[in-house]
Design a protein that fits this description.
Rossmann fold; 235 residues; 2 domains; alpha/beta; four-stranded parallel sheet
Length: 235
């Protein structure tokens, strides 16, 4: 039986806090004792994941490993990481004897819930994320294997709209980022996206699923929350 949930956070701090808030809001409860016991390890000093991935170094890895081991030592037997780019080191995390949810698996689960299982290879899923997430194919690799056809913003939109918007959110200037992100979402819809994944946990702080009437917006934060709740119910 799972006893405690560990959250490896601080990347960024607001996204980690938002994950915890949404976990509390979305867990079916009638009393305090029905909530999931949780420990948040928030370390904002972890080196920038996107920069390291694009440079081909592993500077964030020692602190990520330290956080996972720390959570395990405190009795956490399920760990989630509300940071997409940190999952590029998932193969290293999996060497530690503790269950860790992969955020892309949780998003894939939500896509299937929302759109149904893949019946053909014509459905297009738009992907938003950091430069590194898009360039290194974090979502494309897993979703393509499941039969989804992923489309991403062109480099010009990544450079001028998406990455600057993510940087604004991290600088606590989220309202300034909203119109930039919605412009890119509309562009992905125009190219045939049946759903758009908000594949950076900063983006759902500004763009909510209910903000677009035409297609589902799949939040990586909410997907991770729902997947986590299912894991606890299962155990």
């Amino acid at each position: 039986m799972i006893k405690k949930l560990g959250i490896l956070g601080g990347m960024g701090p607001a996204a980690s806090a938002e994950f915890l808030v949404r976990l509390i809001q979305q867990t079916p409860v009638e009393r305090d004792q029905d909530h999931i016991p949780t420990i948040l390890w928030s370390d904002p000093t972890v080196p920038d994941r996107s920069i390291s991935m694009r440079n081909g170094d592993d500077k964030p890895l020692p602190q990520l490993i330290q956080g996972i081991r720390g959570l395990k030592a405190m009795g956490c037997d399920l760990i989630v990481i509300p940071c997409n780019t940190a999952h590029f080191w998932f193969h290293e995390f999996s060497k530690i004897n503790v269950q860790i949810v992969h955020i892309v698996d949780s998003v894939a689960n939500t896509i299937e819930d929302v759109l149904g299982e893949v019946n053909d290879h014509n459905s297009k899923i738009g992907i938003l994320g950091t430069q590194a997430t898009i360039e290194l194919g974090l979502y494309q690799y897993k979703l393509n294997k499941l039969g989804w056809n992923c489309i991403t913003p062109p480099q010009e939109e990544m450079d001028s709209l998406v990455q600057p918007a993510i940087n604004l959110i991290k600088a606590q200037r989220g309202p300034e980022a909203y119109s930039q992100l919605m412009t890119v979402i509309d562009s992905l819809i125009d190219r045939g996206a049946s759903a758009v994944v908000l594949g950076c946990t900063e983006i759902p702080l500004v763009v909510r699923e209910s903000m677009h009437q035409n297609i589902p917006l799949i939040s990586s934060i909410d997907s991770l929350v729902q997947y986590t709740i299912k894991q606890f119910k299962r155990n």
